[in-house]
Specification:
The protein is of the alpha+beta class and 241 residues long. Helices cover 19% and strands 25% of the residues. It has two domains: 137 residues, Outer membrane lipoprotein wza domain like (Outer membrane lipoprotein wza fold like); 65 residues, wza like fold.
């Protein structure tokens, strides 16, 4: 029974990795080990179908913001979120605000001052905050975290990260996008086909927090075991499964 379970798991993993992709959906839940494959026959639009979201910015440690009291300027202040997620408001003590949106922060401040001021009118303005970014990982020349300063597509993001390595499997580039605090969506893109056909209609645009991952191709995994005389056959990185 254990042997059958092992074989089934290995076959399922191989099918997930080797499935041809044209912007195929894979939904991943961080609280579960399962994945759900999207319909490969569904139509592809120019900005392929990640689940849409318009999230509010959530405060992080190190962020700072201005608090202006319209009718009580003596309480105006600039505060920075401490490493433990708390801030200390003048005359109102400490409050935990990390992870809150600006509307939630405004409510927190009003409650904190409710014992001093009656229904205070306040304005909260972010002063310093985490800049939009994307992450490039796997078989790219310069893996790392990059600022997302402008509209950027997947292919352009790979170029920003130094391009593909000789070991890359650019026919199956994964793009991960968080859609809720618990769920991440992933799609697989055949960048090799897009570049070869000079057609970037399926090239998705990145959103802040996206991560692209370029897997290793099969040839590079076995290359060190091949005789030196056979290496010429595999020298071209575009020849990948």
């Amino acid at each position: 029974m254990l042997r059958m379970l092992y074989v089934f798991t290995a076959v399922a993993s191989a099918m997930l990795i080797c499935t041809p992709s044209k912007g195929q959906n894979i939904a991943a839940d961080s609280s579960s080990t399962g994945t759900r494959a999207g319909s490969p026959g569904s139509p592809i639009d120019p900005d392929p179908g990640f689940q849409r979201r318009n999230p509010r910015y959530l405060l992080h440690t190190g962020d700072s913001f201005d608090v202006d009291f319209t009718f009580s300027p003596e309480f105006n202040q600039t505060v920075t979120i401490e490493p433990d997620g708390y801030v200390t408001f003048r005359g109102a003590g400490s409050q935990h605000v990390a992870g809150q949106s600006l509307p939630q922060l405004t409510d927190t401040i009003k409650k904190a001052y409710s014992g001093i001021l009656h229904d205070p009118a306040i304005t909260v303005t972010l002063k310093d905050f985490e800049k939009p970014y994307f992450i490039a990982a796997g078989q790219v020349a310069k893996p790392g975290k990059y600022e997302l300063r402008s509209d950027l597509s997947l292919v352009e993001a790979v170029s920003v990260a130094g391009g593909f390595t000789d070991a890359s499997k650019h026919s199956q580039v994964l793009l991960f996008r968080r859609v809720t605090d618990e769920n991440v969506e992933a799609r697989v893109f055949d960048v090799k086909k897009m570049l070869a056909s000079h057609n970037l209609q399926e090239d998705p645009h990145l959103l802040p927090g996206d991560m692209l991952f370029v897997p290793q191709n099969s040839i590079s995994k076995i290359r060190r075991y091949l005789p030196t005389s056979s290496m010429g056959l595999y020298a071209n990185p575009w020849i990948s499964p």
